[in-house]
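Suppose you are handed a protein chain with no further information: no name, no annotation, nothing but its sequence. What can you learn? This example shows the usual starting point.
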Amino acid sequence: MERYYEGGKIPWVKSGELRETVINDTEEHVTEEALKETHLKLVPSGALLLAMYGATVGRLGILGTPATTNQAICHIIPDPEIAGVRYLFHLLRAQVPNIVARGVGGAQPNISQGIVKDLRIPLPPLDEQKRITDILDRAEALRAKRRVSLAQLDELSQCIFFDMFGDPVGNPRNWNVEKVQDVISQIEAGWSANGEHRHREENEYAVLKISAVTQGVFLPEECKVINNDIEFKKVVTPEKGDVLFSRANTLELVGASCLIRENYPYLLLPDKLWKIRVNEEKICPEYCRFVLSYPTIRHEISKLSTGTSGSMYNISMEKFRLILITVPPIPLQCEFARCIASMEKLKAAHKASLAELDELFPLSSTELSEVNCKMSAVPPFSEGQIEALARLLGEFGSGSDISRVLSNRGLVDKSRQSTKWRRLYWVFLDCQRQHSCANQIIDFIQSFLVPARFVGRNDELEANRQQLNTILYFSGLEYGKDGKFRQCEAAKTLDEAEKRVRTIRAKFQGRKIHSEVLKYCRPELLQDNYFHAVFEASKGLAQRIRDLSGVQADGAALIDKVFSIEKPILAINSLRTETERSEHKGFALLLKGCFAAVRNPLAHEPKILWQGEDDAADYLSLISLLNRKLDECTVTGLRGD
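A reasonable first move is to predict its three-dimensional structure. Written in structure tokens, the prediction is:
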């Protein structure tokens, strides 16, 4: 009804508008009347949207403004106290293939809300969720930049074509005009065999899908693997120099084409794809592909196609042969081909960079959170440790606090006990027996003792942490000030465990030692081995720079390459002003100085002669400072000098 739409200002999201981005406005809007008189619901800003069926099934979006949605969209409103919006977005995005696979239907399965509600997801503390989200957001931002660069190179190629040849339909430069049939030597259709949607092994035959050409570049992975027992009726394979042409598709995509740059003897063309061989005395393959893809020629192809709304459009071979195209002189076409070859090299470099970024972040968000949150397969605690932990934790909060965290972490209290520590004791015993590991106990502690609960009570948190670590040291675990668990050398006696608590606290009282420092030298610190603690921490600093940059060098050579002013791989600031460039240079010099003055002398000096125990805390504080600066560095995406 018109009153539900006309003049409406409330966004109405359609599933086709879900593109894994934030949605701040929509193509269509509805009125207040529609909201009051129909079943439409106003979904709040910050909700996650998931397409449930149709061609866009599995697509995601985040609402940046309150809106309504069509019936093909499910909305999910995260509880801000336990889950971040973008954390859940990344989790769902990683789970989409599994969600869609559980749907019902054929080529376009339907997802039910029950499937979404039944999803089990890891929920680390909010600060850990934020850390994971920041990593994934930065990775996606870098990928997005590469995709934008690739799109801009494609647009530049079209601009070069227009500058050299003009519109092939308007023909403002009066080039020769010929029918397609007069400039090609062969055109052949394939055969559509039945195949399976699975990974193709080497030397397995597969039939291409029309999606292999729709993006204007050849995508050989867009295929269906043919079973060995199928008898081939026709074999037409893509060969170097072929132009592949889609004779059937939607009205917008019919006539899509691409150029083949190598032979593919195990890929078969279906009947909806044509293989075109050009007469190279009249037209070069690169020019042919571009002229057939030019928007005005594509429009002519669409006009000649037959079909109805909602069905696949098709152009006959007879009509295609008669299409008129401009045919400039061969030398000019070859010059254009050389320009495109240079562009392809640039595109290949960007694609390689994009592939490298994908390799840097191979874990899905689910796997990443599990790796960081659960430290898989924590060995079971002894019953004595469980009792000690239960008694200690029972003093750290109220009964309602314990009930809330047990519920949030999915731990069921069947103890029928009223005493806090006894409740925890029986819950911990039960879950450890059930899962044969201490992971759920660790998960409970991490949620129960989250540092944010102790704002303004730092001394209380520190006292609790030290008592907790006295118990955990026997299992080679330590609970850090940042609320995270780490592995350490297991204590063998109570005296040893208590001594560690006292000595570590005394050594670094008032100092902020970075987690990356402790990552490399914790065992040495626990053994009062300051010489090797500083040595390992300084080596760890170099390794972290290598991990962040991908550069496999050392010392001054590593710093010069990674923190170059001209092409920095890591940048401490934007490098826009002279002051910022000076700060960047100073940081690089400080890193070199650390290696020269701390690491290198330790590497060459016998431990027995070293007199640096009193300075160890200062050295570790310096390395901590450098690591904190590395936290702030940006990966530029440049490849260095």
